[in-house]
Amino acid sequence: GHLDSISLNNIYSKTNFFIFPSLFESFGLGLIEATQFEIPILASDLDYVHEIIEPSFTFNPYDFNSIFNCLEKTTSEHIKPTKLKVENKIIDIINLLKNS
Q1: Nearest to 36 by CA among 94, 91, 82
Q2: Closest to 70 (Cα-Cα) out of 55, 84, 85, 54
Q3: Which pTM was predicted?
Q4: Tens digit of pLDDT for each residue in 41-91?
Q5: Per-residue DSSP letters for 35-100?
Q6: C-alpha pair distances (Å), 21 with each of 3, 27, 32, 45, 93
């Protein structure tokens, strides 16, 4: 559903991890938002995830043990920050559309 920016900021500010078990995603806005809030992301080890971010940890979304082991790693291993691989180009796109 839709959340206003104040509610969204409030939720992300209280979050320690962002778990993204999606099997299919058209773009992954949640991945981008969580990265902007510097929240470590635990995500499915699928191509679309790696096109958008370098997650803190990945797991096989089809394997319960893989998911469990990934969660367990957050308590015993160094958590590397998630890195964003895509740039926000929305202003460029809007300007391009205005000028065409």
Answers
A1: 82
A2: 55
A3: 0.81
A4: 999 999 999 999 999 999 999 999 999 999 999 999 999 999 999 877 667
A5: HHTT--EEEE--HHHHHHEE-SEEE-TT-HHHHHHHHHHHHHS--PPPEE-S---HHHHHHHHHT-
A6: 21, 14, 15, 9, 30
Kindly indicate the confidence band of residue 3, based on its pLDDT and cuts at 50, 70 and 90. Answer: confident
Distance (Å, whole) CA 19 – CA 35? 12
Residue 90 has what pLDDT?
Answer: 67
Rounded to whole angstroms, how far apart are CA atoms 21 and 35?
A: 16
Asked if residue 80 lies in contact with residue 56, where contact means CB atoms within 8 angstroms, the answer is: yes
Structure tokens at 100: 């065409």
